[in-house]
Amino acid sequence: MTDSDDSTSRFSDLYKNNSRKEHHQSERRRTLLEEQKRLRQNEIDSSRCGLLELIEKESTDTDSKSNRHRPRVWFSELYRNKIQLSEWMYERPDDLESWYMLPCPVGTRCLLVIRRGLAVAYDKSGRSMTRFATALGNKQRVTVLDCFLTKDRIFYAIDLLVYNEMDLVQCECQFRFLWLRSKLDEDEVPNKICKSKELGWRLEILPVYDFCKPNEIADCLSRFPMFSEKTTRLDGLLFYHKESNYIYGRTPLVTWLFPFMIPDLLAGSWGETMNHRYLHQIPADYTKLGYRAWVDEFDAKLARKRSRRINSQNKTDQMDGDTDEYSRTGDMPTWEEMDTIVTDDDFDWHQKEMDEMRRLEMEG
Questions:
Q1: pTM exceeds 0.85, yes or no
Q2: CATH (one of 3.10.450.710, 3.40.50.300, 3.30.470.30, 3.40.50.1980) for 5-282+332-359
């Protein structure tokens, strides 16, 4: 899929349906896969720019301008709304063997762009989060990774959009996942991601579990803690259809569950396999309301909190005389807009962490 507006809208029309989502999710997936196959060759044969060409164009435009007064935090329209987001899993897929499962840490979703020895992380609104020098040098050409960034400054890579100037957006998920692991390991990218040890930025690749191998799925669900890093906590589980392209925005070909939802949605042996310590995290109102009602209430709470946050930001910008459109509409990044509702204290901590990341930008 290219970055063109008409192609994006054609995909969006296929899966945007606000009524009876749980009854239509399988049908929307089937329709989207068929349309994706039909368009793939047309996209390849067309002259429209892909993501890589747009990156090169933006880089050329940037290089042609003076960077003497470049701000420490900047916005890129190119990387705005380019992250592939998930839907809730409304029912167990009939073709479960055609899916992967990825355990995901608590963190901020971002695109990590590596070019000319530098790495820049952008949140889903296109705002730069940090910038640092790598030890990859010019040998590592344009590479774009889809990651979670945790408070320990670890980038957990889950997907690959561009690798060494090869655009993978139109490739199937199983091919992207293969390249993510084989090529990054071959070129020792995780070992060379940060030039300065003092900064402490790290890159790790999240493991992928295939439903064609039930023993691997069972081993993953039974594990506690999920990650070797003691401070990294499991947030939830992402499910990717193996034949899906990388689609900008929300798609039914990628779905999400919190760990305590596994017995309800996957049922059977998977529910029995889930580690009991994750099941102890079930919210009291989840048992009372049931899955669908709880999900609706969760989304409503998140929407209200996001609205309050935007209103607060607007007031701050007005007091500061800020007229930048991105600053006025920007929102603090959240885990695919489905992270747990944080307290005000947690939000203050997150703001401080973001401020610290900004302070480190341009260093190295």
A1: no
A2: 3.30.470.30
